[in-house]
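Issue 218. Parser rejects a valid record. Input:
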Amino acid sequence: MDGLNLFDQIAEATAYLRTITDFQPHTGIVLGTGLGRLADDIVPVCAVPYASIPHFARSTVESHKGQLIFGHLEGQPVVAMAGRFHWYEGWSMQQVTFPIRVLKALGVEQIIITNASGGVNPHLQNGDLVIVRDHINLLPENPLRGPNDERLGPRFPDLSQTYDATLRQRALDIARANGIRATEGVYSALSGPNLETPAEYAMLRGLGSDCTGMSSIPEVLVARHSGLKVLMISMVTNVAFPPSRIRETTVDEVIATAMAAEPGMSTVIKGVLAVLPK
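Output the parser choked on:
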């Protein structure tokens, strides 16, 4: 990122977006690997490529479109990130989480974060949804490290209620009403980009993790630092515990599994949005 401080970078990116649209989103949505088709259901106002937004990084991961999409979903004004940034791509944690800062500046009050994950709870199956109630952060860097700007959030944000209980319960209720396999659980994150070893999966299970991935927690930290409500939904795309169930996995298989099960994820997200105040 350039010589401007973070607050001014956010202001510059927001000002640019306001030259394109005055649309006021209430909810932000981050679409993870293989989960981008929900963007097609948004009644669009406009789509802005990341490449044109000041200080935005560039998504390099297959299946990530790299756009901010403004529009309505289930009658709610939303802005969706069709593609996210990952620390393993070489971006700093500040670059990875910069879009969350911009969504907050645009007026978003809550954010729905999605991802694909490996299931380390032996009861999970491919395609299951985990409504995240807590997380274990094993990433080697933190986006809140460094000088804190009190205009953006407190120096020491509390994480005792990281994931909004009301949004979690709504997501579980909608899943159960529609026959979608979903459970609450704990998400963990390692840096990637390699998938974890059998010993690492066993370690994560021993720590109390239900599913694990390579993203999302940095975005959650910044969202909570910014005062946003957070709902995270993780889709299990490969079963990773016990060791006897582990199979060699490719990114193509992860994407295919996520795309096959994505209608369930979309149903839950739409259901959550449908019951929010208009």
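Fixed in the parser; the record now loads. The two ends are 37 Å apart (CA to CA).
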